[in-house]
């Protein structure tokens, strides 16, 4: 009996510490891979969201022969009695949310509900309920009176309509992008022009996406950077690309991303 007891011994403190160290080392090696896999999944979901929004915008254009305005009057013939709705509400039917369209287009929608296609999973600044992670390309908004250089028009300001068919290069003209990651929470029932769109190029910036942030010279959100140096953008022909956040986006004849109406 005594010899049996002597042969039984527990782990020493050193052995336990070694095991803990090995487990910690393995976790340290695995966590970055796990996080990278999660971010890849989130970025893929963001691309899917943009593709669905792009298809809805194109379907709207094909049906009405014009793009939805950034802001619109439901009843342009009597704007004094008509609520303003934005581009998001305009395409809710094309996204499969006809019940929401009927509710919010009447101006009685109240607080917005969660719409999964409108939220980038990597956008930590957007509330899950009613958040909006994406913005449409307003075009060159440096001259507010020059609507001819804009892409999505402000129809509530009686700006004339524009159709995708009139663009010179739909396949190289950005239609939709993630919002600037510093813009904070924006709700999809917003009627703020600056919350719903971005200017490309913005007034007072250099020619790289990295500089697309809110500033005193440009009050509209720029492009988001939620995916480790990459930005998901959707073009007017419906395809989506991942482009580096240092991509030259204007004054580049080989890469005219913002296009010309």
How would you explain this protein's 3D organization?
The chain is of the alpha+beta class and 261 residues long. The chain has one domain (13-244). It has helices at residues 2-7, 13-64, 87-90, 98-104, 193-196, and strands at residues 71-73, 84-86, 134-139, 174-178, 197-199, 230-235, 240-244.
**Helix and strand run:** HHEEHHEEHEEE
Distance between the termini: 94 Å
Number of helices: 5
Largest sheet: 5 strands, mixed
* CA radius of gyration: 25 Å
> Quick check: average pLDDT?
74
Backbone shape: elongated
Contiguous uncertain segments of 5+ residues? 202-222, 248-261
Number of domains: 1
Strand fraction equals: 5-15%
Structural class: alpha+beta
Please count the beta strands (DSSP E, at least 2 residues each). 7
- Main sheet strand line-up: 5-3-4-6-7
Helical content band: 25-40%
Quaternary structure classification? single chain
């Amino acid at each position: 009996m005594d010899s049996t007891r002597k042969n039984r011994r527990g782990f020493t403190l050193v052995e336990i510490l070694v095991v803990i160290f090995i487990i910690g080392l393995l976790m340290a090696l695995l966590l970055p891979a796990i996080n990278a896999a999660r971010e890849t999944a989130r970025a893929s979901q963001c691309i899917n969201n943009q593709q669905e929004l792009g298809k809805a915008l194109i379907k709207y254009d094909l049906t009405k022969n014009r793009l939805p305005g950034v802001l619109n009057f439901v009843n342009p013939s009597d704007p004094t009695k008509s609520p303003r709705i934005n581009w998001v509400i305009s395409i809710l039917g094309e996204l499969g949310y006809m019940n929401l369209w009927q509710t919010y287009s009447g101006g009685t929608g109240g607080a917005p509900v969660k719409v999964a296609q409108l939220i980038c999973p990597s956008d930590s600044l957007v509330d899950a309920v009613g958040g909006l992670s994406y913005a449409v390309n307003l075009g060159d908004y440096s001259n507010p009176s020059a609507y001819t250089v804009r892409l999505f028009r402000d129809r509530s300001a009686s700006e004339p309509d524009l159709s995708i068919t009139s663009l010179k290069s739909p396949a190289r003209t950005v239609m939709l992008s993630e919002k600037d990651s510093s813009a904070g929470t924006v709700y999809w029932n917003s009627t703020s022009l600056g919350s719903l769109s971005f200017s490309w190029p913005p007034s007072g910036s250099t020619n790289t996406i990295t500089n697309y942030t809110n500033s005193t010279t440009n009050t509209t959100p720029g492009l988001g950077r939620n995916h480790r140096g990459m930005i998901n953008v959707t073009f007017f022909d419906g395809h989506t690309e991942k482009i580096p956040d240092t991509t030259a986006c204007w004054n580049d004849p080989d890469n005219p991303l913002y296009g010309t109406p």
